[in-house]
Amino acid sequence: MNCLVCRKPMTVPWTPGTLLRRDWVCSDCESLLTPLAPGCPRCGHPTEDGRTCADCVRWLGLGFDLTVRSLYAYDEAGANWLHRYKFGGDTALVEHVRSLLRTCREPGMIYVPIPLGAERLKTRRFNQAELLARAIGPTASLLEKKEVSSQRELGKEQRRHRPNPFAIHKASRCEKIVLVDDVYTTGTTLHQAAFTLKKAGYEEVSAVCLFRALNKSKTRPI
C-alpha cells in the first residue's frame, strides 16, 4: 500500500473496511495541509488584523462583490496534494478532505462547480471542482466555459485581465448559489463566474475554495 500523496509505502491495520477504502494518505502527509486561520473576511487570505485584504479591496473597487470561504493554504503541501488530485487523477483524495468540505454545507444552498472547457474535460476525464462540490451538498451545472488557455500559461496580470469565458449553461430556480473551485489565486475565475450568474438574475452568490494561494507564495504555477 502506498500513500496517494507522497507515494511512499505505508502499513495499514486490517479491518473489514480496508478493502473499501481508496483514500490512503500516510500520517506524515495527513498533517501537512495547513487549514487557514480566520483572515480576510472576503477570501480567507491571512491578514494580521483580520481586515479585508488588498486583493479584495481591488475587486470591490472594480464593482465585484463576492465572499469566498477558503479552507487550506496553497503552500508546498497544498500544491503536492492538488497536483496528485488534479493532474495525477487520484480522485479518491476527495475523501481525505470530505469532512472539512462538508462543514461548508448550508441549508437551501446549491453548489455550482466551476466548469472546464470541453477539450480540457476530455483530456482530464473529470472536473476536479465538480467532485469537490458533490462532497459538500446538492449540485447544479449552471455554467459552461469556453475553451481558453490554461492559467498555468498566463502571468498574474494576464489572468486578471482575460476575457470572461463563462456563460449560462442552463437556467434553474436556484436562489442561493455557492460556487466551488479547487484553488483561488487571483480570484478572476470566481469573480467572472459570479458576475455571469448575477447578470443572469441569480442575486445571492458566494463561493468555496479548497485552497487559497498566498500572495507571497513561491509554490509552482497551478
- The total number of structural domains is 1
Under CATH, the topology can be stated as Rossmann fold
Side by side, the strands of the main sheet go: 1-6-5-2
**Total helical segments:** 8
Mean pLDDT: 88
CATH architecture: 3-Layer(aba) Sandwich
Distance between the termini: 28 Å
**What composes the largest sheet?**
4 strands, parallel
In total, how many beta strands? 6
CATH class call? Alpha Beta
How would you spell out the order of helices and strands? HHEHHEHHEHEEHE
Label the overall shape. globular
Task: Classify the helix fraction into a percent range.
Answer: 25-40%
Domain Phosphoribosyltransferase: 173-215
InterPro entries: ComF/GntX_DNA_util-trans (IPR051910), PRTase-like (IPR029057), PRTase_dom (IPR000836)
Family: Belongs to the ComF/GntX family.
Organism: Exiguobacterium aurantiacum
Topology:
Blueprint: H1 27-30, H2 54-61, E1 68-73, H3 76-87, H4 94-102, E2 110-113, H5 118-124, H6 128-136, E3 143-145, H7 156-160, E4 166-168, E5 176-184, H8 188-199, E6 204-212
Parallel strand pairs: 1-6, 2-5, 5-6
Antiparallel strand pairs: 3-4
Helix pairs in contact: 4-6
Organism: Exiguobacterium aurantiacum
Family: Belongs to the ComF/GntX family.
Pfam family, one: Pribosyltran
